[in-house]
Amino acid sequence: MNNHQSSSSNTKIIIVGAGGIGKSTFIQYYVNGKYLVPNSTVLCDFFVKQVKYKSEQIRLEIWDTAGQPQFQNLISQFYRNTSAAILAFDINNIESLRKLDFYFNDLNNQLGQDVIKVIISTRCDLKGMKYDEKNNPIKAVSDEEINQYVKEKGLKYFETSSKADIGVKDTFNYIIEEILKKQSIVGTDNTPNNNISLIEQNQSQKPQQKKEGCCSS
Questions:
Q1: Does residue 178 contact residue 26 with C-beta atoms inside 8 Å?
Q2: Which of 8, 43, 168, 196 is geometrically suited to a Cys-Cys bond with 57, CB 3.0 to 4.6 A?
Q3: What domains lie within the chain, and their CATH numbers?
Q4: Contact present, 161 and 21 (Cβ < 8 Å)
């Protein structure tokens, strides 16, 4: 309706996956519009970005989590109030795809199966172009392997590259629309996601509920 007043809401999105696969770069590219290679995340960090959908102003809290084995069983403490989760793997690392099983099951156990989830591959611009220390080509995860995994989990999938500006905005636009539909703000019509626009960008912030210095950017 025309007299619908603008409102704002907080939305929490968390990204999970193996360590060293480009999760932090993916987030920082979306938030800051720049390709950066940040330091490794220590347990968790989060970033804030304001977006606008029609009359809705949405404050996104995007939580970055460490994927190293020593942190794997600790990150579930940051799942609370999560609206959507991004499960990430490296397109040139089949093990990182297999590790998503842990996060998929962990998210379902902690948040329920209805929480919005998407799968992304990172570094798709380097697909089939990575080499090991002996200069042997590293086999990329095949389309067949990805399609089988995505079909098994029943999730939406995006190929992404922060360096080449592929799929990053599409991933978040899809998530935002799914969240708004779930909240009955948008309804069931397939409104194009180009209605989502940036209001302002904010730097990374630290989770406030933890005071023992466990989080770092």
A1: no
A2: 8
A3: 7-205 (3.40.50.300)
A4: no
